[in-house]
Design a protein that fits this description.
heterodimer; A: mainly alpha; two-stranded antiparallel sheet; 7 helices; about 0% strand; B: mainly alpha
């Protein structure tokens, strides 16, 4: 990752995190607390480490400086956010805290997906709130993330395929509106 | 029936054999890959948040459906 890419990615992550915290406060009345001051940097740096150690090692012809395909970036960043676990809630049970960290990871991933892939956000919103298959897909992915222990597993390639398929599903549903 | 390890291996292989033209296509599309605009589209964030709430709404049940 170039220094420019790093700065841009950290800024985007910081925006997504802030947006998530504000939206949870607004809609659920729950105050999320950032327990890691440099959460955006931590997530970005862990992402970069896994990209250099795992992704580039396995992808044919991929060298430092080449662009990594965006579904791998989304998947890898989502898992990095779960591993960093940046959020806590004062006086709340561990399962609730994990739930909102899972939410943050999904929020970051979907934000990247929509930002990067030029999906119409207004049409996507309609689809996400009404389409049963989209809803089922998201719920199941959240359950999988919740149960995943990223200390031992970091399945970024298969997660990348999940995000690729979600993108195809969302794009096709949006086309029908 | 395939076990989890086999499924994961197949997924990995599928990623590895991804056609070069696919990566090339992404690389050549500045608009698609623009880092500059990331995080500056509030509507994208609002939509992502809706997806997030849909995803975690029933998480407390923690039952993996069939």
């Amino acid at each position: 990752m170039t220094p420019e890419q790093y700065e841009s990615r950290v800024a985007a992550l910081a925006t997504y995190i802030e947006e998530y915290i504000n939206s949870v406060k607004e809609t659920k009345g729950i105050s999320l607390v950032i327990q890691k001051e440099d959460a955006a940097k931590n997530i970005c740096e862990l992402y970069d480490r896994y990209t250099e150690d795992i992704v580039r090692h396995w992808i044919k012809g991929s060298q430092k400086g080449n662009i990594i395909q965006n579904f791998k970036i989304i998947a890898n960043t989502e898992l990095a956010a779960i591993r960093i676990f940046p959020i806590t809630i004062d006086g709340e049970a561990a399962d609730q805290i994990k739930k909102y960290n899972v939410g943050l990871a999904i929020h970051i991933a979907t934000s990247f997906l929509i930002d990067w892939n030029e999906i119409d956000p207004f049409k996507a919103r309609k689809v996400i709130s009404t389409d049963e298959e989209i809803i089922y897909f998201l719920e199941e992915h959240a359950t999988w993330l919740y149960l995943l222990d990223t200390r031992f597993q970091f399945p970024l390639f298969s997660n990348s395929q999940v995000w690729r398929l979600f993108y195809y599903l969302l794009r096709d549903r949006v086309k029908t509106i | 029936m395939l076990d989890t390890q086999t499924i994961h291996t197949l997924a990995l292989i599928n990623e590895l054999v991804e056609p070069a033209s696919e990566e090339e296509k992404f690389r050549n599309s500045d608009k698609r890959w623009s880092e500059v605009t990331l995080g500056k589209n509030p509507e994208a964030c609002k939509t992502a948040f809706l997806a997030t709430m849909v995803a975690i709404e029933n998480l407390s049940e923690l039952s993996v459906s069939n």
